[in-house]
Specification:
The complex is a heterodimer of chains A (431) and B (245). Chain A folds into two domains: 218 residues, no CATH class; 148 residues, Rossmann fold (3-Layer(aba) Sandwich), CATH 3.40.50. Chain A is built from 13 helices and 14 strands. In chain A, the strands form three sheets. In chain A, strands 4, 5, 9, 10, 11, 12, 13 and 14 form an eight-stranded mixed beta sheet that branches. In chain A, strands 1-3-2 form a three-stranded mixed beta sheet, covered by helices on one side. In chain A, strand 13, helix 12 and strand 14 form a beta-alpha-beta unit. The longest helix of chain A is centred in the middle third of the chain and has 24 residues. Chain B has 245 residues and is of the alpha/beta class. In chain B, the strands form three sheets. Chain B has a five-stranded parallel beta sheet. The chains are: A alpha/beta (431), B alpha/beta (245). The interface between A and B is large, with 41 and 42 residues.
């Protein structure tokens, strides 16, 4: 199943920031980044990372609220900054709830956070239990996490007590505020009180630092050391047997492709039009006019731009310069788990050289890319060295067999170089 | 250089604004204008309604399949024979009217070649129709091209024939004025975004129209689609929550 285009999921921090700026924010997808959390924001760099998929909406809301209501950077405090970060998350979540767009995590994200919370409890990491439960205040997970804390003995009771106090303090601050949202200063005060309580319990040392390894870059809910399972899936033989997820994107195509003399020029008879061509049809069907026939005039070319191919952007640019109008050209490559197929030429237009950079250095998505090529008009050319892989960029027998089957059934011709592909595409159009 | 003139130079915007565009469209010295910029900022609106439009305006939106004959004119069956009908460019040339060509970058080679003698200097601009009639542009004839792309991709000889090439990036102020103050502030911020997140003025105007009947959330969904609409709604909700409540 191919993912939908990501662009539609990009949030608009420019519309919520307190002061207008001409410089747009850079939005990145946390699914393709190695971040400890599923959302992050950096006011000074004007950078935001959120999951660019349907499940990312609550994360986007949360990060937008940071842009609107949090200061550009958290102030220095004399206690562990993670305490302030989780209280700030709770303040933000409560604020979103007040204005009517609450953070409502989907079932998958809830299950993920519950798993992390269970691990905190198993490790007796009371600080992490407090942090995670505090960060969940104002979300649909709050009752779940606080409910489970009751069964975790003294540490759970202490964490529950902390959460209840933070929540009560936030509610008091909200009641005093005209907008119904606790001010940031109140959040700092509440964090300081929480830090004192944690210190009294021995969870913070004399310098106010906690030993816990929980990371709180922004939203502490989804932070944790759970990469082991996914990593194992990457590297294991079972993972390599499956192709990665692939997204199909279409690069902007502002440049016109040159057309070969006489190529792609075909006309059809029509009963309406501007140019009279076949007067002899007047007594029969009256289709005396000619109209240009729109359609596909060239080949479909799929280029593997993974590292093993060593294809430079300049090589692709030359291919597109040599590509006649009518051809469809796409490139694909991947990271270890997922990849992208980018359409860079279609009908009589092509992308700019700036949009030809490969997505990653791995293959991983050969199968879905060839399945896409199989649906395109023929002849179908695949520029590749023939090396195909699955998840983790590992070769596997099932992937190789599937690729061979697609090539055979869709009459896909593999060519080794871009030059050969360009020659074949031109020959096709001339014929 | 005096202090005063220095100050004036510094204050001058390097961008083409709509005031200048309207001055160009009103000028009798300029016969061909290439006006380009992002979609939905009011280029076509300006080309249709601003400047010298007293003799009328003909408009064509060009596609890859549009033949030159559609612009020049064609024979139509009539009874036992055929009669010649002038196309919009031939009509505009004869009447001294304005012709607006939208999306020239999508035009076929056929149309581009046909435009060479049209966008010539007045002394040499002329075409001979299939009726053997040769027509020259009457006084007042002008060609305004609107496009999203710069003319870089056009044949150099055609680029050279445009007397003015204007890029506008800001939406037309008259169109922005039609937005309510709360939406206007947000719309102005959105125009500077990169292409894949840019919200066009058309979208904002439609949202403005639908909001009273559908409410903010549903209006965003129907105007911008489910994914983009939900993101725009969330951002707007921060600023408009008082009103919605």
């Amino acid at each position: 199943m191919y993912q939908k285009r990501k662009q539609g999921f990009k949030p608009f921090p420019e519309l919520v920031e307190p002061f207008s700026s001409e410089e747009p924010w850079k939005i990145e997808d946390t699914n393709t980044l190695q971040l400890p959390s599923n959302g992050a924001v950096d006011h000074r760099r004007r950078w935001m990372a959120v999951p660019l998929d349907p499940s990312g909406r609550p994360v986007s809301r949360h990060e937008l609220a940071h842009v609107a209501w949090s200061p550009p950077h958290l102030p220095r405090v004399r206690f562990d900054a993670r305490v302030l970060a989780v209280v700030e998350d709770a303040r933000i979540n409560r604020g979103l709830d007040v204005i009517g767009i609450p953070v409502y995590l989907d079932q998958e994200m809830c299950a993920h956070v519950r798993l992390l919370a269970a691990r905190d409890a198993k490790r007796n990491d009371t600080f992490a239990m407090v942090a995670r439960a505090t960060a969940s205040i104002g979300t649909n997970l709050e009752s779940d996490l606080t409910g489970s804390l009751g069964g975790e003995g003294c540490a759970g009771q202490f964490a529950l007590e902390c959460v209840v106090e933070v929540r009560a303090a936030l509610e008091r601050a909200e009641a005093r505020s005209a907008e119904g949202i606790a001010p940031f200063k109140s959040g700092v005060r509440i964090a300081r009180t929480l830090a004192r309580k944690l210190q009294a319990e021995g969870l913070l040392d004399s310098r106010g630092r906690a030993k816990s390894s929980i990371e709180t870059g922004c939203c502490a809910l989804g932070h944790g050391e759970d990469e082991g399972d996914e990593g194992a899936c990457d590297r294991g033989a079972a993972g390599a047997a499956h192709p990665g997820e692939m997204e199909i994107v279409r690069a902007p195509m502002p440049v016109r492709l040159r057309s070969l003399r006489g190529a792609g020029r075909s006309f059809r008879a029509a009963t309406e039009g501007s140019v009279v061509r076949s007067l002899t049809r007047w007594p029969t069907d009256k289709a005396i006019f000619r109209r240009r026939r729109s359609g596909h005039g060239g080949a479909s070319v799929l280029v593997d731009t993974s590292g093993s191919m060593s294809i430079e952007v300049s090589d692709l640019d030359r291919l597109l310069l040599a590509t006649p109008a009518g051809a469809r050209v796409a490139i694909y490559s991947a990271t270890r788990r997922s990849g992208e197929l980018r359409i860079i030429a279609h009908r009589n237009r092509r992308a700019l050289a700036a949009d030809l950079e490969p997505y990653g250095r791995a293959n991983v998505v050969d199968v879905p890319a060839l399945e896409w090529l199989a649906k395109q008009p023929g002849p179908r050319l695949w520029v590749s060295d023939g090396k195909v892989t699955g998840i983790g960029d590992q070769p596997s027998e099932p992937v190789t067999a599937r690729v061979a089957e697609i090539c055979r059934s869709a009459r896909i011709e593999r060519v080794a170089t871009l030059e050969v592909a360009a020659d074949r595409a031109k020959a096709r159009q001339r014929s | 250089m005096s202090k005063k003139s220095k100050k004036n130079t510094d204050n001058r915007s390097s961008r083409v604004d709509w005031v200048l565009v309207e001055r160009v469209l009103s000028s009798e010295l300029i016969r061909s204008v290439y006006l380009y910029g992002p979609p939905g900022i009011g280029k076509s609106y300006c080309a249709y309604y601003k400047g010298r439009i007293g003799q009328g305006v003909y408009a064509c939106t060009l596609t890859e399949e549009t033949p030159a004959a559609e612009l020049r004119g064609c024979w139509f069956p009539s009874g036992d024979g055929f009669v010649w009908h002038n196309g919009p460019i031939a009509c505009a040339m004869l009447e001294g009217a304005r012709v607006v060509l939208n999306e020239l970058s999508h035009a076929s080679d056929d149309v581009l070649a046909f435009l060479f003698p049209i966008i010539e200097s007045p002394e040499t601009a002329r075409i001979t129709l299939p009726t053997n009639e040769t027509i020259s542009p009457a006084p007042g004839f002008s060609v305004i091209v609107t496009d999203n792309l710069p003319p870089d991709d056009l044949p150099p000889a055609l680029q050279d024939r445009f007397e003015t090439v204007l890029e506008v990036t800001e939406p037309h102020p008259e169109a922005v004025e039609r937005l309510s103050p709360d939406l206007r502030k947000l719309a102005l911020r959105s125009f500077a975004l990169e292409n894949d997140r840019r919200v066009s003025l058309r979208g904002w105007l439609m949202l403005e129209r639908l909001r009273p009947e559908f409410g903010l959330e549903d209006s965003c969904l129907v105007v911008f689609g489910a994914e983009r609409g939900s993101q725009i709604h969330d951002a707007l909700h921060f600023q408009l929550r008082g009103e919605e409540a």
